[in-house]
Amino acid sequence: MIQFQFITAFLLIVLGIYAFLAKRNLIKLILALDIIDSGIHLLLISLGYRIELNEVPTAPIYTGYETLKSPMVGPLPQALVLTSIVIGVCVLSLAMALTINAYRHYGTLDVRALRRLRG
Amino acid sequence: MFGYWDALYFVLVFIVGLILAYLLDKWAKKSGMGTREVGEGTKIFISGEDPEKVIPGFEHLEGSYTGRNVMWGLTYALKRFFTALRGEHTGLLTDYVSYLIITTAFVMMVLLIWG
Amino acid sequence: MNGEAILPYLIIIPLFGAFSMPIVSLIGRKAREAWAVIISGATLAVASALFYSVWEDRGIIVYTLGAKSPLGQGVSFPIRIVWEVDLFGAIMVLMVALVSFLAVVYSLGYMKHDTGLDKYYTLIIVLELGMLGIAITGDLFNFYVFLEIMSIASYALVAFRNDTWEGIEAGIKYMFVGSIASSFILLGIALLYGQYGTLTMSYLAVKLAQNPTVTAKVALALFIAGLLFKSGASPVHMWLADAHPAAPSSISAMLSGLVIKVGGVYALARLLFSIYSPLAYKALRAYGYPYINMNTVGWAIIIFACLTLIIGNAMAVIQTDMKRLLAYSSVGQIGYILLGLGIGLAAYGSHTGEVALAGAIYHTFNHALMKALLFLIAGVVIHELGTRDLNELSGLAKTMPKTTFAFLIGAAAIIGMPPLNGFASKWLIYESSAIFNPILGAIAIIGTAFCTAAYVRVLYTFFGRPSERVMKAKDPEASMLWPIIILAVAIVIMGLFPWQISEKVMLPAAKALEDQLAYISAVLGGA
Predict the structure, then answer these.
(1) Of residues A17, A26, A40, nearest to C186 (C-beta)
(2) Which of C152, C166, C241 sits opposite A94 (nearest CB)?
(3) Right CATH number for A4-106 from 1.10.287, 2.40.50, 2.60.120, 4.10.280?
(4) Does B97 touch chain A (CB under 8 A)?
(5) Interface residue A50 vs chain C (CB under 8 A)
(6) Could you write out the DSSP letters of every residue in C448-464?
(7) Residue C137: beta bridge partners?
(8) Among A117, B104, C340, C473, which residue's beta carbon has the most beta carbons within 10 A?
């Protein structure tokens, strides 16, 4: 079975990096950042989701664990992704705030206009 | 591994040097024709620049050009190097990202081939 | 003293202080300032006690979050988050706490005319917290979280003066590229977790030695690229020259003195020596097992270090903006530290490698003091004159004698003039690089020549004929002057006992960093 989730994850990461290099609008760059982050999150989640013995794993809820016979997904990657999402939200909101301020100072969202500091 | 070094000896030598310089100065003042204590003799005269001299057309820079040309020889000799360096620092966000990608690709290539 | 008992307070105190700051600042301005000083002072006290405890015992302190032992119940591998401090980490902790404390004290006078100061003090303590966390953590994901705490606080602080275009532009450049670098590091962590199923650094080291795969190499490449970015090595140093001058000067001192070292070089050293290890490489190669060639990694780092050395110091020569000059000089000095690190990796096991590593650690500490001093002085100049253009600062020595004298000390130390502290650390790096490969030694000396040229320009400006603008300036108030004096005195005193410090602290730290087995067995208990 082809593991589509891994291919999708790396596709998302590459797509985000491509967008970062090719796009000029600051908002699009923020979206690119989010896409890279999502790709990594998808990769992490997929690492915990392993189909063993043709049984689909269930959510890692430990209450009533004894009655459950099927395997569970790894809980650690999910904890990591939750943390990482929180960090990602923090980065995105700060990026948005800076973009609004940049629009106030420069009157444009074109990233090529932001080059007064150089040399 | 190379030789021996102790900062305290350096300080000692430095102090001895200061005393020697002071004695030399005293001796020179005594045996010379006399030092000018006022007027021309008291000017700060760094790297051949006369701070009092006004260059025609550059009056707006008067008094504030002291450090500007100190390293002129170095910057002029390496002009092409510095121009190339300055040209690389474009200040474009996209360039910064591409340098990061290039670095990653370089390190990854090195590690995959010779790692 | 029991280091394990006081270790958690290193995180608890700044965390509590940072998030109680908005409440305390409701009482008033004085209360807020006093609270910031008390919190950073208490952190400094804890850090000093921790450093002394680690230095005295020569051991490794392990603290497990939420349990007595890092190992899981009934299994022989660690499942909990651990904090692990060896002597190298303890030096970093002391350095961070000291410079942060001085930066907070300096901010009392420097940031007086700004608004939003409750947020400023919260962020500065969060920044300190992030760096302390990186220095003590023994868990990869925990490391990522602290790295992001540090990075986000520094993005926000670079753009703190959002009424100027400079802060915003620098903030955007730093933030967008920095987030991609962080993403690379997270991707590397995800790959390692997928391959080996653990995040504890010491257990990961064991797993890596047992089965080095291509995935581990790819992850290592991502880590190195991301951390080189964070440490400001060429060719990914351009954000540094934009971001560090744009921040308020107290923040510039912390960014240039601490963030690029703890978040970049320290993390890189920890990764390369404690997880991917040259020790395992040597052993595996000798017995013919598959290995990851750490020699190649060392040489890759040396190449980047040489580039950084030359480009950073050369760009400093042609700057007219004082803070930008200092920022480029930081890039150049990072080159020396990376050179020491690279030689320590490539010449692992020999005396040369150990000396190079000790030199790198020593220079990290010294440069934190020197660059913090220089940036604080630049802040004083901006505060008094409102400009940092070198062409307008001529003759500062007449009206600001104490400041200029402190700058002279800082500049002489950073060039590596005896008998100041920069001499000893730079000497260790020159010496080991000349023995390792004479060409590297020559490159290091050329870098220093450029560095000297840059600082001589500034000093000539300061000692020149006073311009009219300068005549109104005077030495700053006490809260800004004292941090400068303390740093200058520390530089001179450290310069007077270079080999004693090198023998007693830096060489043991280099040995602790090289001794990967002790790092592993401290967590796994010799299993």
Answers:
(1) A40
(2) C152
(3) 1.10.287
(4) yes
(5) no
(6) HHHHHHHHHHHHHHHHS
(7) C83
(8) C340
The distance of B98 to chain C (nearest Cα, Å) reads 9
Evaluate whether residue B73 is within a structural domain. no
Mean pLDDT confidence for B57-86: 75
Q: Is C285 among the domain residues?
A: no
- State whether C152 and A47 contact (CB < 8 Å): no
Q: What is the mean pLDDT of residues C94-118?
A: 92
Q: How far apart are CA C317 and CA C328, in angstroms?
A: 9
Please indicate whether, in this complex, the C-beta atoms of C180 and A87 are within 8 angstroms of each other: no
Tell me, yes or no, whether B50 and B86 share the same domain: no
In this prediction, residues C297-310 reach a mean pLDDT of: 94
Structural domain for C491, as ranges? 295-496
Return the residue of C nearest to A44 by Cα.
C190
C80 neighbors C66 (Cβ within 8 angstroms): yes
- C223 located within any domain: no
Verify whether the Cβ–Cβ distance B66 to C292 is below 8 Å. no
Asked whether the whole model's pTM tops 0.90, one would answer: yes
In this prediction the ipTM stands at 0.93
Separation between Cα atoms, residue A117 and residue C246, nearest integer Å: 10
Q: Is the pLDDT of residue C526 over 60?
A: no
Structural domain boundaries in chain A: 4-106
B104 located within any domain: yes
Q: Chain B: residue nearest C214 by CA?
A: B112
For range C353-364, the mean pLDDT: 93
Can you state the angle between helices C507-514 and C87-110, rounded to 10 degrees? Answer: 120
- Helix (H, G, I), strand (E, B), or coil: what is residue A29? helix
Give the model confidence (pLDDT) of A47-60 as tens digits. Answer: 887 776 667 777 77
**Containing domain of residue B86, as a range?**
78-115
B52 in the same domain as B93: no
* Cα C96 from Cα C135, distance rounded (Å): 9
Same domain, B43 and B89: no
Residue of C nearest to B62 (CA): C467
Structurally, how many domains does chain C consist of? Answer: 1
Number of domains in chain B: 2
Please tell me whether the peptide bond between C278 and the residue prior to it is cis, using omega within 30 degrees of 0.
Answer: no
B26 within a domain of the structure (yes/no): yes
Q: Is residue C431 part of a domain?
A: yes
A49-53, C46-50, C461-465: segment of lowest average pLDDT: A49-53
- Kindly state whether residues B36 and B92 are assigned to the same domain: no
Residue B29 has what pLDDT?
81
Does some domain include residue C140? no
Residue B72 counted as domain residue: no
* Nearest CB to C179; choose among A33, A80, A101: A33
Probe site for chain B from A13, A26, A30, A112 (most B CB atoms < 10 A): A112
Closest partner residue to A114 (CB to CB) among B89, B93, B98 is B93
pLDDT, position C372: 94
Task: Compute the distance between CA of residue C378 and CA of residue C455 in angstroms, rounded to an integer.
Answer: 13
In a shared domain, residues B61 and B108? no
Q: How confident is the model at residue C527 (pLDDT cuts 50, 70, 90)?
A: very low
B27: closest CA of chain C, how far (Å) = 27
Which residues of chain C are within 8 Å of residue B82 when distances are taken between CB atoms? Answer: 314, 317-318
Q: Enumerate neighbours of A (3 or more CB pairs within 8 A).
A: B, C
